[in-house]
Amino acid sequence: MSTAAAFCEAGLAHFQAGRHLDARACYQQALGIDAEHTDAQHLMGLLHLQARQYNDALEWIVRAIRRAPKAEYLASFATVLQLHGRCDEALAVLDKAIQLRREDAGLWGQSGILLHKLGRSEEALARLDESVRLLPDHAQTLRTRAWVLYGLKRYEESATEGARAHRLDPGDAEICNNLGLALRRLRRNEEALVWFEKAIALAPRFADAFDNRLVALFHLHRFDELFALSDRMISLGLSNEVTAWNVSLAQLLTGNFEAGWLGHQTRSKLPSSKYPPFPQPMWLGDENVEGKTILIAADEGLGDTIHFARYVPMLAARGARVLLAVQDPLHRLMSDLSGASVCVPMSATGTLPDFDLHCPISSLPLAFNTRLDTIPSGQYLPTPPESRVQAWDSRLGPRTRLRVGLVWSGDPSHVNDETRSIPLRTLSRILDVDVSFVSLQKAPRPHDAAVLRERSDILDLTAELTDFTETAALISCLDLVITVDTSVAHLAGALGRPTWILLPWTPDYRWLLDRTDSPWYPSVRLFRQTETRDYETVLDRLRDELRVLAAAFGG
């Protein structure tokens, strides 16, 4: 006569082979013999879990735990709790399971994955480390560990761990894709390309791998291949908003403004979009705006708002009444912008006057059909109040040497921060030039702040830069601004101040390629990385130029 345990064993074999109906029959027979058989209850829970019947799964698994709180039951309970969105409870359950079975690599791995999902990456890594110690050659644990390291920006370790996972499971496309991502962050784009291609070979409809391959081609300046890949993705039905966005950036960077501005509209469909859903119609240049009130609202970064504010006077010249909504730190500066009837901070858009149309500020180049030869350039920002300029001039003291403002880093959360920003210690190779250096760097990173404190040759008054009007007033007292690609670069350029911008090998689209000037800002000079992608040689070139300026000032 068969026992409940025998039916459970047979049912588990059916379940693992994917024969779920046969498995259910065996579990039911087991429960017919012993209604409180905990293994049968647990396995019935797993069947419901497999069928995505999560409430039933929870009920069966909890019944099993009440009679026998085994570690494997608790692990299944945690899985169901997680699927219900109850992640903190799931983690507590897994902790109990680990206490019961501390040598179970799977439990450590499961809790590590959950901690990563909760954004507790350092703790996740510690759990995954323990899982790997207990079971060193488990490819999926190594894959997860590599991804956690990637999230912690430990890209070398992520690549090493990903390669190890690939050796154990060479058929896993996700491992290949993630390894490619780590290599791309290390600026090893040629190698990254190989791994994205491997991922696609393993999973021919792996859309993320296609997108990542496209981005690698972008950073390698292989634009013909990029556009061909985009066409292939469209034909395969794999193109999406991210693809279209990246293609538009390539089009703009290479000077194809007609296609690029149109594709640039895709940003509104990206998860990062913060543009409010106004009920009024969006204006993109087709409708006559004479006599209409139109809201122009910031929709990207501070630099983008400064960059595209140049179109506001042009819009007013068409007879529109322009309401301008900008980020709060820009409000005072933009309040006197020519052409803006009203300027409000984005935090006050709920109190706007009535308007007929709206347009994201970054859509204005599209609305004005901007081409390379029709870019509106020249100074357009209002001159800072003379009282503020005089106040800053007094703080700076006698003008005995060339005054040079410095900015070496931008927003740490920017997707290209690793290529745009440079450490202050690296920038310090220009500090032996005989000029007066003035920091314009707000919120320096801890390692840069430590270097700044050590240096007596950089005047730091940034605690008093309370908004962009104050920064503009200080810039107006300087002879030159040297900056990476950040909002201050746009501010100085828009004020018509001499500005030298340090650019990575693959810059933001608006700086184009292979030129030292900017059609957007006549007072700007561009100092670009070469294919070596190092800033040291760029800074050496810049230092030589700065010495010439310093000598001329002294003469």
Describe the structure.
The chain has 555 residues and is α/β, with parallel strands linked by helices. 53% of the residues lie in helices and 9% in strands. It has helices spanning 4-16, 20-33, 38-50, 54-67, 71-83, 87-100, 105-117, 121-134, 139-151, 155-168, 173-185, 189-202, 207-219, 223-236, 241-253, 257-264, 302-308, 312-317, 331-334, 364-367, 386-396, 417-420, 424-427, 446-454, 468-475, 487-494, 535-554, and strands at 293-297, 321-326, 340-345, 357-360, 403-407, 436-439, 458-460, 480-484, 499-503, 524-528. A six-stranded parallel β-sheet has the order 7-6-5-8-9-10, sandwiched between helices. A four-stranded parallel β-sheet has the order 3-2-1-4. The termini are far apart.
Brief summary:
This protein is an alpha/beta fold. It has 27 helices and ten strands. The N and C termini lie far apart (108 Å).
Biggest sheet statistics? 6 strands, parallel
Please count the beta strands (DSSP E, at least 2 residues each): 10
User: How many angstroms separate the termini?
Assistant: 108 Å
Percent of residues in beta strands: 5-15%
Number of helices: 27
Give the overall form: elongated
The averaged pLDDT comes out at 94
* Class from helix and strand fractions: alpha/beta
- As a whole number of angstroms, the C-alpha radius of gyration is 30 Å
Give the uncertain stretches in residue-range form: none
Question: Which descriptors apply to this entry?
Answer:
555 residues; alpha/beta; 6-stranded parallel sheet; 4-stranded parallel sheet; 53% helix
Topology:
Elements: H1 4-16, H2 20-33, H3 38-50, H4 54-67, H5 71-83, H6 87-100, H7 105-117, H8 121-134, H9 139-151, H10 155-168, H11 173-185, H12 189-202, H13 207-219, H14 223-236, H15 241-253, H16 257-264, E1 293-297, H17 302-308, H18 312-317, E2 321-326, H19 331-334, E3 340-345, E4 357-360, H20 364-367, H21 386-396, E5 403-407, H22 417-420, H23 424-427, E6 436-439, H24 446-454, E7 458-460, H25 468-475, E8 480-484, H26 487-494, E9 499-503, E10 524-528, H27 535-554
Parallel strand pairs: 1-2, 1-4, 2-3, 5-6, 5-8, 6-7, 8-9, 9-10
Helix pairs in contact: 1-2, 1-3, 2-3, 3-4, 4-5, 5-6, 6-7, 7-8, 8-9, 9-10, 9-11, 10-11, 11-12, 11-13, 12-13, 13-14, 13-15, 14-15, 15-16, 17-26, 21-25
